Amino acid sequence: MTIPSFPIVTETDAQLPLYLTSIGHWEAQERTKRPVGFPDFQWLQALSGTGELTVGDQRYVVKPGQGFFLFPNEAHAYRALLEPWDVHWISFNGNLMPSLLKQAGIERSGVFTTTAPDSLITHMKSIYAMSLTGHPFMGMECSKLLYAFLLDLMRNVWTSSPSAADNYMKLHPVTQYIEAHYDRTITIDEMAQCIGISSQHLCHLFKITLKMRPMEYVNRERINKSKEWMFREPGMKMQEIAPLVGFETASYFSYVFKKVEGMSPEQFKRSHGR
């Protein structure tokens, strides 16, 4: 058993986008029942044994390699079905949580399969070690580590969905095609032909996977390449860069650049001292 850590959350810590409230490890997780829930978000990662999570009327079996996410103030209970049930757990809060959960597609408490559980455990051990240091800025340091953990958790949980992983892999030839041909006209039909689907289906895949339309992605690729030209050849004018990155006119290039970056190409150059 690892002695749980309950770091002091100062008023300053509570203003951080993310902050740690507790963390620990039970080699033999005991039965836990919380009729009024728990005040913070929690993630519990199972290493061995088998457990059962109950949230409302829903019952879930938790197997090794899986974890379960608990929302604050929601009645729940969990217990071992096959002992010893080895579980690492971490509790946290912060105003960044709603947007992170939305991006990860986690809408409710439940059990999730993770693609790289060892990576998550490594994060949790690092956070635990930091929480015990007495570092003068321990809350901030834990917040940084917690953010990395949650990003990794989001990737683990999100890509463990077969449809999400499949969509990313299916779009990979298209994004490679865009990178290779950004300097000329690219049509949606061309991109769709890369993977043998209709243009409508391609638009749907981009929307649900990357949250943008295909031509938005193309233009972002072009804008990124234009930035490379600005740094590589600071003396080049915008009307010279525009055709090199697939824009027919400098005016349209400037329009798209400002729409994507919130500033004109000239302002971008000046802001970077070019």
Low-pLDDT sequence parts: none
Strands, count: 8
Looking at how many chains there are and whether they match, the oligomeric state comes to single chain
Q: Please, what is the average pLDDT?
A: 91
Largest sheet: 8 strands, antiparallel
- Derived from helix and strand composition plus strand pairing, the structural class reads alpha+beta
The CATH class of the largest domain turns out to be Mainly Beta
The share of residues in helices is: 40-55%
C-alpha termini separation: 57 Å
One letter per element, helices H and strands E, the order comes to EHEEEEEEHEHHHHHHHHH
What's the tally of helices? 11
Task: Tell me what the CATH architecture of the largest domain is.
Answer: Sandwich
User: What number of structural domains do the residues give?
Assistant: 2
Q: How large a portion of the residues is in β-strands, by DSSP E?
A: 15-25%
Give me the CATH fold name of the largest domain: Jelly Rolls
Instruction: Report the radius of gyration as a whole number of Å.
Output: 24 Å
Using the alpha-carbon principal axes, give the shape.
elongated
- In CATH, the homologous superfamily of the largest domain goes by the name Regulatory protein AraC
GO molecular function: DNA-binding transcription factor activity; sequence-specific DNA binding
Protein name: AraC family transcriptional regulator
Domain HTH araC/xylS-type: 172-271
InterPro entries: AraC-bd, Homeodomain-like_sf, HTH-like, HTH_AraC, RmlC-like_jellyroll, Tscrpt_reg_AraC-type_HTH
